[in-house]
Write a structure and sequence with these properties.
- By secondary structure, this protein is an all-alpha fold.
- It has a domain at 15-39.
- Helices cover 28% and strands 0% of the residues.
């Protein structure tokens, strides 16, 4: 497996700041679970809220 970057220098701001359990499952399915554990860590749960600050359904 290989990852190719278009740009020579790293982007100054973070782009993907989290992945959910489904994305982690898919990346693990292609053999990346060991690599993911080297560059990531568990995060606190997050909730989607609407404009009234109520949990979105």
């Amino acid at each position: 497996m290989a990852v190719f970057e278009r740009w020579k220098q790293r982007h100054a701001l973070p782009r993907a700041v989290c992945i959910d359990h489904e994305m982690y499952r898919m990346l693990s399915a292609i053999g990346m679970s060991e690599e993911l554990s080297k560059v990531s860590h568990p995060a606190f749960p997050y909730w989607w809220m609407n404009a009234e600050n109520l949990e979105a359904e």
